[in-house]
Amino acid sequence: MIRYAYIIPFLPLLSFFVNIAVGKRLPRKGDWVSLATIGAGLVMSIVIFFEVFRIYDPNFKYHVVVPWLSLGDRFVINAGILIDNLTAVMLVIVTLVSFLVHLFSVGYMHGDPKYSRFFAYLSIFSFSMLGLVLAESFFFIYIFWELVGFSSYALIGFWFEKKSAADAGKKAFIVNRVGDFGFLIGFLILFAATGVLGFDEVFLGISEGKIGGTLLTLAGIGIFCGAIGKSAQFPLHVWLPDAMEGPTPVSALIHAATMVAAGVYLVGRVYPIFTPDAFLFIAYTGLITLFITATIALVATDIKKVLAYSTCSQLGYMIMGLGVGGFTAGLAHLTTHAAFKACLFLGSGSVIHAVHSQEITEMGGLRKKMPITFLTFLIATLAISGVPLFSGFYSKDMILKAALLFGMKNPHHMILFAGALLTAGMTAFYMFRLVIRTFLGEPKDHHKFDHAHESPPSMWVPLVVLAGLSFSFWYSGWFGDLIKKPAPIIPVVASVSAPTPAGHPGEAAAMLHAGAGEATHASAVPTAHAEGGHGKAEHAAPASQGEAHGPAVPAGHGAGSAGLSAVALAEAEGHEDSHEAHLDHVAHIWSMVLSVFFGTFGIALAFVVYRFGWINPEKVASAFRPVHKFLLNKWYFDELYEATVINGMKAFSRALGWFDLHVVDGLVNLCAQVGVWISYLIGKFDDAVVDGAVNGVADVTIGSGSIFRRVQTGKLYHYVFVLAGGALIIFLIKAF
Amino acid sequence: MDFINSHILSLMTFLPLAGAAVILTVPGGRDNLVKTIAAVAAFLPIPLAVQLWFTYDRTVAGVNVASQFQFVEHYSWIPSINVEYFLGADGISMPMIMLTTIISFLAVIGSWNIDKQIKGYMALLLLLETGMMGVFCALDFFLFYVFWEVMLLPMYFLIGIWGGPRREYAAIKFFLYTLLGSILMLIVMLALYFNTTDPETGGHTFNMLHYMQQSTHNGWLQGFDVRILLFLGLFIGFAIKVPLFPFHTWLPDAHVEAPTAISVILAGILLKMGTYGLMRISFPMFPDVTKWFVIPMAILGAINIVYGALCAMAQSDLKKMVAYSSVSHMGFCLLGMAALTPAGMVGAAFQMFSHGMITAMLFFLVGVVYDRAHHRDIDGFGGLAAVVPVYTFFITVAFFASLGLPGFSGFIAEAMIFIGSFGVFRTIVMISASGIIIVAAFHLWALQRVFLGPLNPKYAQLEEINAREIFCLAPLAVMTLILGVYPMPVLNLMNASLIRLVDVVKMVI
To answer: Distance between CA atoms of B239 and B300, rounded to whole angstroms?
Structure first.
């Protein structure tokens, strides 16, 4: 089946064209076309997943290309697909969530005048996302990346008659384009250096040292900018909450499992290109995002907005996890989050469908009316809050562990762990606040409550499936075995000034033995490639091409330091190996204990405040009014951007428009005007001087004629007199 | 049949002129007959273009090798000064010839609703097509110049008589501006003529391909200073046509005032003559100066991209916005050409082709709404998507094609230009690439203000796009899409020639 994987994206593309063209005229307005194609894609994806799973090889890879664009033999761009374990998992996630969202939409969008159009958009979105997942080169991932942006524009702005929806779609696309700009520059840098576009080829080029240092860091950050846009990271997170203007199934599709996951997936896909500096940038971007957006979620009262901010926050976790070296952790969270967040969004859709409101201040007590929705929502909430046995615990704990390990090795980056831990508590708090205010307690609005009802099966079946996937046993074990961090490929340049760490005599030999053969910058910003650290370290064999794991070196005398991490080097001791294992173990225990503690505290606090009423939230809010207001206004990011970037751009463009009209074109018109003046002057000159001269000659002739005419008197004595006078004058002249 | 095959370029060039002549003999008042004749005359080159498409040998390059040109017609025209009637096609001109036949025909169909002096209008339009086709086929500089001037006159009248309220200003501006370029070109042409010798006859020559052989140049022409001057003379002439900043201000006026179909031709084909001239004449004749001038060209390209996009954002007139977006998009051509890499050069040529289709769509679409609402003020509409969904569909396609969405040909062109030029001018390309944000912003902003949001009740009865208009748009939309998914058909057409061009300029061969 895997050799037919390229068909998967084309299935929804087909249904897109069918639904756009004739959807309205088909029975059931064509929803079954979309549903069938994505369902077929789901089946194929599952089959492929099990094929890959049966092989159970972390280095599994299926990679085919065909030439797509060529300029003679000078330049070729290939089209192709790449399936490794990560791709196989992503295929299932995307098709599964997409299929369930399709199914949910059958009920949710029922009766909408643009029903078939909606399914067309869902299909094109699925196409773009599947293409993105299967892409094997920077060029093609960029293509599908843009297409995802386009389809999200169409879906978010689906109800375009609403100005807010149209605005949100536009905002999403433009903000994403800002990120894409960085992505473009990033891959152009890589292409300029390596001359190739395929992932593997670029990795090979990097391992051959064609690019490195600051330029590679910049390229990595550039590409990560794409992820900042799509995965709604600070400072480009502003589009995601607005995007809730789209129909709720769209929110579930875009903001839970697919589009926002694309950024995380991208970082995972190109993981080997990031330098330690780039990783640090990634980690802190994640930290800032997860914290800021969680604080906003604390006070939001729109059920979808809370979920939106929690999505941003969870994406921050994934990004941070990847940044601190937790490759498996970040992608595991991506996987688990896809299921429970889709469940939460669809659950909120079910609630909104029932009460026709999104404000949690108008809900309450819905547990009795909508038991299935409540139960599934609760399970997903437990998952996101990181309660043991649920999937979120499994993945979030891995991230926290990675962050803690990173912090233990680099104490001045401990804030990454601290921030993430604190936010884990906040997450539990705001999610339970949501559950309590929506489903428990007394109904706030009896009119709405009375009309509420459980949703039809097409809507609750997806909820049940997704809630079922929110338990951790689905993921533990195999995920960590199969989704393994790729071996580092960036060759480490020997630094002259690198102080020999620890001065251990076995050090240099160990490193040479490990095949790295180069010394590390001891001063470089450290990255702990934490996961590989179970007493074994991967080393950078430059020829390993980033495809296969570098051969793991058995922990020998100091060999564990070959993990290329400066910190590992700095800490290189004779008992490095056991030390590493020890650190790992400690980090694991502490992160688990602390995260459970903080999670429990958050949940408890939510009950204390919102269920038992021991603390009055209004009083707290008024006590911290400025903070509350600050959070309610989402840290004023929108206002800030409006005031600076947006208005700045508008003003700048207006100024240029003015400049163009009045200065550039003004000059042109001035030239024309000057031409007219000059011609006027020349005309005058011609009239007065040239023609004047001509006329003057004539005038003089006529004038002199009339004067001299008088001389011709015809009287003889006049002539004789003149003659005599003339003779006299000549005589006088001669005489003197 | 033999005659057709051996004179195919002449036929494509002069069939429209013949149509124009026939139209002039039609008695007044028979408007439909005039339109039909015009449509037939504009359509006839299309089957010939198909013939070209299937018989063109894609493996030979042309550019500076006379023997590699195809469909050549070579006769003496004015023997006393060695002017030749010399037509031929290679990979630089082939896509442009294809584009010209398609756009001209669609422009005739798009002019169906003109009711003012249709006879004169159609005759001039066909004359214009002859001029354009001639420019793309001519290989003799004198002939090239004649066709170049032939284009100018009908354009002047088409804008000046059938244009909008400020048509006279716009027409005169267009005419004078272009004439300035022509004069510079004329001077360069004469300088070249008097300083080259035909290796066969020993006399002076207008043959472009001879100009490209340095051996024909006499001592004066070998001086670098002289060559710079001549290059700049040509460059300004072509830059006006592209149009490059700061010579671009004739374009918004001409576009805004011109009738729809004329804007389509203007943006779809005429602008490409500037870049075509650079590729056909300036680059291969002055490869040394070209290399010396690449950075300024790239900078001008970048300015066009960013400045054009920002100006477009500032416009409140939809047509003017589209006009400025052309300024922006043509900047990509210059950037790609200046890089002197295969990807950049082919990207630039592909951008010429692709922009020809996309901008033609855009101007048609603006014309459609103008015909109905009688204004083009972006803020004067609102929510039109609810009343005219089909029209909205087409304009969405055109806008996204224009803003470089993958899947449309514009993306391929821009991506190739970026890929081809980034290694050469890093900073300039980074600045240019920021254009993708601005371009997205103004397109979506306009789309939203005109089509989305609550419906402006004034336009609740707006008439949907009709079949004739769809007929003009659909082929372009489909071609843009097909070439966006698989650009090789057109790329194959031009690859060999453009790679040769790069090598010629770099003096590899």
So the answer is: 10
Hey, what are A734's tokens? 């001669």
The tokens describing A54, both together, are 């049966």
Q: Is A642 in CB contact (< 8 Å) with chain B?
A: no
Rounded to 5°, the CA angle B38-B43-B47 comes to 160
pLDDT confidence of residue A577: 67
What is the rounded (10 degree) CA torsion for B482, B484, B489, B490?
Answer: 120
- Return the structure tokens found at B217: 């140049």
Considering only CA atoms, which of B462, B314, B457, B328 is closest in space to residue B392? Answer: B462
Partnered with residue A71 across adjacent β-strands are A75
Asked if B485 is an interface residue toward chain A (Cβ–Cβ < 8 A), one would say no
Which chain A residues in 185-214 lie under 8 Å from chain B, judged by CB atoms? Answer: 185, 188-189, 191-192
Contacts of B369 (CB under 8 A, 6+ apart): B318, B376, B381, B384, B391, B450
Average pLDDT over residues A411-435: 89
**Residue B388 domain-assigned (yes or no):** yes
Cα–Cα nearest to B101, from B154, B51, B32: B51
Residue of B241, B229, B247, B378 whose CA lies nearest to B292: B229
Determine the residue of chain A that is closest to B430 in CA distance: A185
Q: What is the mean pLDDT of residues A589-607?
A: 85
pLDDT > 60? residue B109: yes
End-to-end C-alpha distance for chain B, whole angstroms: 38
What is the C-alpha separation between B346 and B353, in angstroms, rounded? 11
How many structural domains compose chain B?
Answer: 1
The β-bridge partners of B76 are B84
User: In this complex, is the C-beta atom of B381 within 8 Å of any C-beta atom belonging to chain A?
Assistant: no
The 3-state secondary structure of B65-76 reads CHHHCEEEEEEE
Closest Cβ opposite residue A181 in set B420, B437, B442:
B437
User: Where in the sequence is the domain holding B424, given as residue range(s)?
Assistant: 295-509
Are B445 and A68 an interchain contact pair (Cβ–Cβ within 8 Å)? no
**Predicted confidence band at A221 (pLDDT cuts at 50, 70, 90)?**
very high
In angstroms, the separation between the Cα of residue A150 and the nearest Cα of chain B is 8
Burial of B249 (0-12, 13-18, 19+ CB in 10 A): buried
- The C-alpha atoms of residue A56 and residue A45 are separated, in whole angstroms, by 16
- Asked if the C-beta of A148 comes within 8 angstroms of chain B's C-beta atoms, the answer is no
- Mean pLDDT across the stretch B10-27? 90
Distance, in Å, from the CA atom of B298 to the CA atom of B473, rounded to the nearest integer, reads 33
Give Dmax (Cα) for chain B.
74
Most confident listed range (A495-499, A626-630, A645-649, B109-113): B109-113
* Whether B412 contacts chain A with CB within 8 A: yes
For the stretch A696-718, pLDDT in tens is: 888 888 888 888 777 777 777 87
Chain-chain contact of A71 with B433 (C-beta, under 8 angstroms):
no
Chain B residues close to A653, C-beta within 8 Å: 310-311, 313-314, 438, 442
CB contact under 8 A, A71 and B406: no
ipTM of the complex: 0.91
Contact of A645 with chain B, judged by CB distance below 8 Å, is answered with no
Cβ-nearest to A161 among B407, B454, B496: B454
Q: How far apart are CA A169 and CA B232, in angstroms?
A: 46
CA separation for the pair A422, A400 (Å, rounded): 11
Tokens matching residue B210: 């001879």
Per-residue pLDDT averaged across A340-364, rounded? 84
Per-residue pLDDT at A63 exceeds 80: yes
The CB density around residue A697, as the number of other CB atoms within 10 Å, is 10
In a domain, B458, yes or no: yes
Q: Is there a domain that residue B332 lies in?
A: yes
Domain membership flag for residue B329: yes
B398 CA to chain A: closest CA distance, Å?
A: 13
- Least CB-CB distance to B422: which of A139, A162, A191? A191
